[in-house]
Amino acid sequence: MLSKKIVVLTPVKNEAWILPLFCKSASIWADYIVIADQGSTDSSREIVKEFSKVALIENDSLDLDENYRDKILLEKAREIAGTNAILFRLDADEILTPNFESTEWDEIKQSPAGTFWRFKWLQLYPGFAYYWENNTAFGVFVDDGREYNGHGIIHSREIFPRTEEDEEHIASEIQLLHFQFVDWARMQSKHRYYQCFEHITFPTKSAIEIFRKYHWMYNSDLPHTSVLNSWMEGYDRLGIDLKDISFEEEFWWDKKVDEYLATYSPKCFRHFETYKPSKLLFAKGKNVFDVLLLAYLESTKRIYNRKKGILRKIVRKIDHVLQFKFHI
What is the rounded CA–CA span in Å between residue 270 and residue 265? Predict the structure, then answer.
């Protein structure tokens, strides 16, 4: 019996900072890497063309639409490998730990059609010395040819919703290294964009709820677990430096936020973090109340994210009052 092909499905928009590292690592174990590029204006397209296993397709969405994005990724994967492939759904800033010869890797490759696998999701801190574990992330679906029906336009990572009949495993040996927080400024820029996008897309959603959603990582309760030397050394033996990423000073998300402000007017986003905190007092369209609200949210984000404590209870009570009495 022929072995199933391994196909990586990855969306990209201006990911030149990490794409060489991602493509090098995924090329070791994948048969194909399908990348859907959404109008990158950096060198992303040129980078991926240097890798023979990459199939580059166009994502012509004007804005974020994960339903469409994953649909075209899946269609291309099936065009290349049929409906009998092992599909890895990874973002460009996610890299597997280098234990590809483990028994668990064999288990994944031998899984029957319709099987799901999830990985422990390890968030790397700036500096690469520590990480914290953030639950699990969907990673693998062994294709059984089922029809794609969509799942949401934002933060809908799984290609298919899992049914009660589907088998699911959580990997214990192979883990998923997430590089999003290595570049903290980049993460902040992306989350400012997400806040504006959610407000436009879901206008009835509370501004406070949206703010808290994109500041959960400011939490003194998060553990600092040391990164294993075996991860770095394992990739070193493969000729790959896990720290080989590029730090940028400007991000396309900030330009997109400027476009939103010009299109919808700054007043539309008066309750949102559209600028860096240092520029908060000078933000257009914000009155004194708006500035005070954002200053309150900014100054209480660490308290809000604690697991317990009297201050946490007070902050959450204030949030509740602001949301339901003042409709913020």
Answer: 9
